[in-house]
Design goal:
Layout: H1 10-28, H2 30-57, H3 75-89, H4 104-112, H5 118-124
């Protein structure tokens, strides 16, 4: 995919300048950043382990505060255990959900042939850009 010239977008220019300043600062202070990276790695590793352990208890512990407890029901397991009739007798509900989809090849061929109007094509067809995510820097 072609890249647009970054110079045409002021926000990109400001981001690139901020990134360059940060990289220059990092290069001037390698010992500080080495220590910082080590501390952040330890923090993140212990955070993940503690969060995982606390979640398994379903309780609050220290800074890990459970905000709510959500109850979910597995309808498929109830259906499998009781069968169709029992499922319905014990609160189960069978729903029919309509889902529409488009055969892209047929749609594009008919749009190209003028069978589907340009106005309808513009309404139906969307272009959704996906970008590589640039992570934010986070310090406590």
């Amino acid at each position: 995919m072609l890249k647009k010239d970054e110079k045409g977008i002021p926000e990109v220019n400001k981001f690139m300048a901020a990134k360059a300043k940060l990289e220059q600062f990092r290069d001037k202070h390698p010992k500080v950043f080495a220590e910082l990276y080590s501390l952040m790695e330890d923090y993140n590793t212990t955070l993940e382990a503690a969060a995982s352990t606390v979640r398994s208890t379903c309780e609050s512990h220290g800074p890990f505060v459970r905000e709510k407890l959500i109850t979910k029901y597995d309808a498929e397991k109830l259906y499998d255990a009781l069968g169709h009739k029992g499922f319905l007798q014990h609160g189960g509900v069978v729903e029919t959900v309509t889902k529409y989809s488009v055969d892209k090849k047929v749609f594009e061929a008919q749009a190209a042939g003028g069978i589907i109007t340009d106005d309808l094509v513009k309404e139906v067809k969307q272009y959704i850009p996906h970008y590589k995510k640039i992570e934010k820097l986070v310090l406590i």
